[in-house]
Amino acid sequence: MPQVGFTCPDGADITYDRCFKECRMGKRCLPLLLLMEVADTRPTVDGVYHVTEVLKPPKQAFLERVHNYFKPPLDGVNSTFGTLWHLLMERRGRKVSHIDTEVNFIALIPTTHGDIYLSGTCDAVDHLERESHDWKTTTTFHVAEHKSGDFSGENWVEQQSVYKPFLFPNIPTNKIVAVYREWGERMSSKCDMVEQYTLPMMPEDEALTMIVERIETLAEIELDGAEPRDCTAKSGVNGSANECWEGWDRNTKTTVRRKCRKYCGGKEVCEQYQTWKEGR
Question: Which CATH number fits domain 78-216: 3.90.320.10, 3.40.640.10, 2.60.40.1120, 3.40.50.300?
Answer without folding.
Answer: 3.90.320.10
